[in-house]
Design a protein that fits this description.
Order of helices and strands: HHHHH
Oligomer: single chain
Radius of gyration: 12 Å
Number of strands: 0
Strand content: under 5%
Length: 79
């Protein structure tokens, strides 16, 4: 059975790229290593709630909208 990756990473990468923000910029804003951002985005690592929130804020996204969209997408995939 194949392990599912964390849906947050893909949604975050899409948001970050749409806003034209680099992984390096996110890592500098968070004081968090770029490699860890890469691992989250590729789904091999799942961030905790606080880190996920900080990441969303670091790309100047509105957290409520971001997570609402993420949950809606996850619900559609479960159907």
């Amino acid at each position: 059975m194949q392990e599912k990756s964390c849906p947050f990473g893909l949604a975050f990468r899409r948001e970050r790229q749409q806003r034209g923000i680099s992984q390096w910029t996110v890592s500098m804003r968070l004081q968090y290593h770029t490699r860890n951002i890469q691992r989250i985005e590729d789904g091999s690592r799942q961030p905790g709630v606080l880190l996920a929130l900080r990441m969303v804020v670091a790309v100047d996204a509105e957290p409520g909208e971001f997570f609402e969209t993420l949950f809606e997408e996850a619900a559609c995939e479960a159907c």
